[in-house]
User: Fold this.
Amino acid sequence: MPGKVLPRVARRIGTKRWVLKRRNQILKLDRGIRRITAGRRGVLDIAGLPSLELTVAGRKTGLPRTTSLLYVPDGDSILLVGSNWGSTEHPSWSANLRAAPTALVHVRDEYFAVTVTEVTGMDRKLAWDQAVEFWPGYEMEYELSGQRRFRIFELRRK
Assistant:
């Protein structure tokens, strides 16, 4: 079944360190694809994985900041993991989400507002296990980050 082959291959490739070393090229390609498709598709979509554009107010400037991200479907919710490609630093979008109770999500042809909750405590462990099952590369990124505790967010439609 071709629809299941690409995501399986992408998940396997996502566990390889060389992919992280090419993040700048991947991000540049993603921006180009999103420009051509008016934001409806990105690199992950082509690989059969779910991606979104997240727009959230900058915590310092208040200006809207947009970034493309892999997401983990969770029933009616969306989980975002702040892995930052295995960097030792948290991604700036995660600091902005921490400061914002709401954000805007763009998935394919749909835009919708979401409420933002940082997942903590026992729920965080469950969310982490679910995220790693969905995207095994998170384990490698965790190791490369010096075992930085990735921020995990749950987004729910308003």
User: Anything to note?
Assistant: The helical segments are 2-13, 17-21, 23-36, 43-46, 92-99, 121-134, 137-144. The chain has a mean pLDDT of 92. Strands lie at 51-57, 64-70, 72-74, 77-81, 102-107, 110-118, 152-157.
